[in-house]
Amino acid sequence: MKKTHTLALYSDPDEAANALKDLKSSGISGFRMDDVIIKSPIDHPELSELLGPRPVYIQWFTLLGVLLGPTTGLVLIASAQASFIYQVRGGRPVVPFPPDMVLTYELFILSGVLMTVLSTFVAMKLPGNRSPLYNASVSEDKIGILVKTDPASLPQINEILGRHKPLEIMGDNAR
Amino acid sequence: MSHTVPSHPQMDVQIERKFVPKQKDLGEDVNWAQINKDVLRSLEKPRPAFWIIFFSALALFSFGVYCEVYQYQTGMGVSDLNNPQVWGLYIATFIFWIGMGHSGTLLSALLHIIHADWRKPIYRYSEAMTTFTLMTAALFVLVHMGRLWQFYYVVAYPNERWVWPNFTSPLVWDATAIGTYLTSSLLFLYMGMIPDLAICRDNAKGARRALYKFLSLGWQGTDRQWGNFKVAYMTMACFLMPLAVSVHSIVSTDFAVSQNPGWHVTSFPPYFVLGALYSGCSGIITLFIVLRYVFRFEAYMTQPILNKLIKMTFAIAMVWTYLDLIEYATTWYGSDEVARQDLVYRATGDYALQFWGMIFCAMVMPFTLLIRFVRQNYVVLLIISLILNVGMWLERFQIITPTFAKSHYPWTWTAGWWPSWVQWGIVAGSFGWFTMLFMLYCKIFPSVSMYEVKEMVHEQNMHDKLHGAQAPAHQTALGAIPEMNGGKI
Amino acid sequence: MSLSNLIKNWSNFRTRRPYEGQYDDSPYKWAMVIDLDSCIGCNACTVACYAENNLPVVGKERFGKGHAMHWIRIERYWGEGETLETEFPERGAQYLPMLCQQCEAAPCEPVCPVGATHHSPDGLNTQVYNRCVGSRYCSANCPYKVRYFNWWNYPERAWPNPLELQLNPDVTVRSKGVMEKCTFCMQRLRAGMDKAKTDGRILADGEVVTACAQACPTSAITFGNLADKNSKVAKMWKTQQVDLAKNVQEKTEDGIRGYRILEDLNTYPSIVYLERLRNMAS
Known about the structure:
Oligomer: heterotrimer
Structural class of chain A: alpha+beta
CATH architecture of the largest domain in chain A: 2-Layer Sandwich
Radius of gyration of chain C: 20 Å
Order of helices and strands of chain A: EHEHHHEHE
Number of domains of chain A: 2
């Protein structure tokens, strides 16, 4: 069934929190908290909590990066030192550990950072502009609650959202 | 000046409680919409000083380019570098710029990890400073090269002849470390900027809107985005702090790994890191004052924040002073006669003026920061922060030049070597290049983090809601702050 | 594959040099002995080097700026307390020909970012002009300061037509921006070693000498193969009790003059200098 969207804008985080609590306890058929998205100018952990667990997996990719990056890097560096025309420099061993450790350390950081950034973009679904409803004021000072719902339960949801002094409630056609 | 509050009804009415409220970093009249307005205004119409700074920087840069083209075409000889003096100002200024680049990202990351909120209005431009100083420093690596057109030999790229750079060379460590640092701090800067770019996108028109739309990647501030963003940002901060420390230690190995007197010093890595932090902090203060004036950021770059910054600069200056003195002390106390003579030569020889200039500018001048008048007078503070950086530049100069002038081998002892105008021109050009890039950045991108200042305001409001509103901002523990702008914070 | 190469030759890659008997299996290890007592400071070695190795004459002004390219230079020293006579400044000077010491553990080698300088199997410190990017780190780290940088495009002015015809065709003319230094007349050694290899033998002692050694009127410079125990150089090193792989030499006999310059920096140079004898009575 085709879903429809509604976006309510609040200026007070407490009102938004109350709206979310009401939505949670409303028991509307076909409605799940996973369909609710908060859009806000800053992070509101106290509001996100109300949405239930939304886990973050970035750290595991970071771990992968910091494990794979330096090991492959060290092997590449050491084999590059060995494979090029056999060069002795300054009497040091051809594959010396201290310099290789320095470079491995840098690769450790670099791969960690790159993996973090890449996985973050994947997790945040960026780049992309897939969200159906957006209002510029959520980047200024308003908190938006976006609900994806069946057209049938839309009036009920709008009623709940309207209970807590929203500045505006917008539907799909508002675009 | 103490401030009294009405005592609690249950308490003895006779007891007068001394109320010492915490001085707030931001004023009371800052709200979220105002933040957007103020910061976005900085992208549009700055004070005329902006154009003066920008065009004089452009002129300096053009002169630097002229010098570099002349040197490129004629040969390195025009710089008057010679056999013992092979590095001269290029490497000294390279170290200087790398050092300048340290405070921005390092402090931003450190203060983020320990949740020091006062970092929020000033971290963005500090990180931008890091990025552009690193770019300037990278320029010096190229300028200094005898065969600039073969610069890619230093990069480890796969090729059919299996020729690699020499991984044992500190210069390759440098290239790797700076590359890593530039990449990471650029990503850190960019990552932290995405929510602000979305704000710009929502408010801009025309070509600028297209630019911000492209750069903000479609950020909408959803809870999922914020949740991931916070984790990623903290993770990156945790990577960047050790990275920044490692980068300048690696730069110090350019010297510490070699066997020249005055360079072969065990304490060089921490000494360099602290020197970098020191000059970076003074750089942040300089730009703080400049941006505050040019972009009218008086409401965000406030006296309490500046005060914290100054305290930190002073503390770092003292650690640096200690490390510098301990380096001389160990050299003096040790049995390496060549190093000791080199030390004596530094203090009394041809470059004694630079040596004592460094001592004065970088060791004595920080004590002026203890005077309240200096901390609160922006013009004086601007001059002092510049003097501190002159001191740090002299420090780099007197690390490099005297060591070459009086090295191990007596026949190569030279007296009174002095760089030519080409070197000075390129050094001046680098300052132009940095200022130009930085000013352009501040004109195109928000140089105060909007969403994080909003967080600050939000937290202040929450705090007030929980504990009741405290003393008005202009009446605080330090008394009425004699502010420059008519008492406005 | 490179990884299997790495595993197969692991112990070789992890060896520190120089070590005792490093050149026992190698046919060549080029080395030199310079007798300072014989040196009269005539600069013939320098002139020979200029002619042999296509060194540019830079002119008075650039020389004064320290841009000279003399791979071998005659240094003058006066003893402590001696005053410099202005009329005959050379009087009382002691001479020391200084050229690249071809160190076994050369400080210049590990610091080059592109690997333009490294150690050859016959014990020479090589410089690859094509690879050099001119970072000058090698020169900064050379304690003897015997590396010379092409500060200018010397070929432009050094050999005006028709002087370019006198250039040695066996030696590269270096462009601006690269580092160069004494090669122990690599081109002569290379030609000699190739010829000997064709004949199935190794070079005889004295068959190939460097230009400076050849030109020295007092035979102060002795050049030869240290790996050949019977060569003149090897015998001199032995008599002077200088061991290539040691940084502190044990001298058991009196009157031994051999030393290596700045040995305490652990550079293990390949050139032994014989101290000048002074008439103490005068």
